[in-house]
Design a protein that fits this description.
Strand content: over 45%
CATH architecture: 7 Propeller
Number of strands: 31
Structural class: mainly beta
Strand order of the largest sheet: 1-24-25-26-28
Number of helices: 0
Shape: globular
Helix content: under 10%
Radius of gyration: 19 Å
Length: about 375
């Protein structure tokens, strides 16, 4: 999984427009450039799944199907919707709903993981009122069609905003936490919370992300003073991810806001100049050179996400008001030195958060929210 958010430097669009637009496979690789290359059209535009009331996450099934999760308004407290989609489906083939315990409210970003064709798990954060429930783990043994009663796996202070599946453990954390980057790791079959959780970085965490490198955990967070600064901590494979001592600082990037971490890829946005997105790749000791993501400069209202697919290729998805008028554009790279030409996935002005899931061929789905919208990729 990766962090998905609208830039805090941006203002929301004043009006919401809707259009169905064409898109296509990405074109040949080109050197990175600040020149805005016209985007390739696409084979299928976005489709509406339904109303949503939170950021979302999406995962791929072994047969190419997709599992999308997001919170919806329902009664006083809301609930999480689980939508099953076929590999080419444009509406849910089945839906399940996960209601919080007691009088808690659903909050932050539900996370979904596909462990096999039959085993699907969802991590949900609930809070607060008179019953501080905390983090709940739901498990399905029939491919996401129904779920067992939830297991409480974290306290009310943890939150769920970003996560990654590292081996058979879910590593996750919440955002906007005064305690810092508070990291929790649980097995996929957790029966309760761990005895302790880690503080990877003691600075107040506004935006957060979780990546991985050779079985180790990469934890990204940023702070906001007069401007943003992004920090990345690393705990190597074999370390206890619930122990603060397992983490050490590998990089600090001043005047850059954290946008996403996926795999070993880090995406930030510079807070000066034209505010471009910057990609760096982790090498086990630190991050390699900064690469400007083409077509992401210009400022203004914007939303982004990133996915490092199983082949190692990095895909950046960006919606920027000053670049193709709120269309969702995809560019990809293996090293950051050369990028594909942008692919236009369609009008995305209604979406304010994005998540994505891709296979090793770069095919899959970007999921936008408010309302829930699917953007086929590849």
């Amino acid at each position: 999984m990766n962090l998905i958010r609208r830039s805090a430097l941006a203002v929301s669009a004043a009006s919401l427009l809707s259009a169905g637009l064409l898109s296509a496979m990405a074109g040949p690789a080109v050197a990175a450039s600040s020149t805005r290359t016209p985007a390739a059209p696409a084979v299928a535009g976005p489709f509406k799944i339904g109303p949503s009331n939170s950021p979302s996450s999406v995962a791929l099934m072994p047969n190419g199907g997709r599992v999308a999760v997001f919170d919806i308004k329902s009664g006083l407290h809301g609930k999480t919707e689980v939508c099953l989609l076929s590999s080419t489906g444009r509406k849910c083939s089945h839906t399940a709903f996960l209601s919080p315990l007691g009088v808690a409210d659903v909050s932050q970003t539900p996370q979904v993981f596909v462990l096999s064709a039959s085993h699907v798990i969802v991590l949900q954060y609930t809070c607060c009122e008179n019953n501080q429930t905390g983090d709940l783990l739901y498990s399905s043994s029939n491919g996401g069609r129904s779920f067992s009663a939830p297991v409480r796996v974290g306290d009310n202070n943890q939150g769920v905003a970003a996560s990654a599946l590292i081996g058979r453990h879910i590593v996750f954390l919440g955002n906007n936490n005064n305690a810092g980057a508070r990291v929790e790791s649980i097995p996929v079959t957790a029966s309760g919370p761990p005895a302790t959780v880690a503080i990877a970085n003691g600075k107040t965490a506004y935006d957060v992300g979780v990546g991985q490198y050779k079985g180790g955990a990469l934890i990204g967070s940023d702070t906001l003073g007069s401007t943003y600064a992004t920090y990345v901590e690393y705990a190597a494979s074999g370390k206890d991810f619930n122990a603060s001592s397992s983490y050490h600082r590998v990089s600090t990037f001043a005047k850059e806001q954290l946008i996403a971490i996926s795999g070993r890829a880090l995406l930030t946005m510079r807070t000066t100049g034209s505010q471009p997105l910057v990609l760096r790749l982790f090498n086990g000791r630190g991050f390699g050179p900064a690469h400007i993501v083409p077509g992401t400069s210009g400022g203004g209202a914007a939303s982004f996400t990133m996915n490092q697919d199983p082949s190692g290729r990095v895909h950046v998805f960006s919606e920027r008001g000053l670049v193709r008028a709120y269309h969702l554009l995809e560019v990809s790279t293996s090293t950051g030195a050369r990028w594909t030409r942008p692919t236009d996935l369609g009008n995305a002005i209604k979406s304010i958060w994005f998540s994505s899931a891709l296979n090793s061929h770069g095919r899959g789905l970007v999921l936008g929210t408010n309302p829930a919208l699917g953007y086929p990729v590849g």
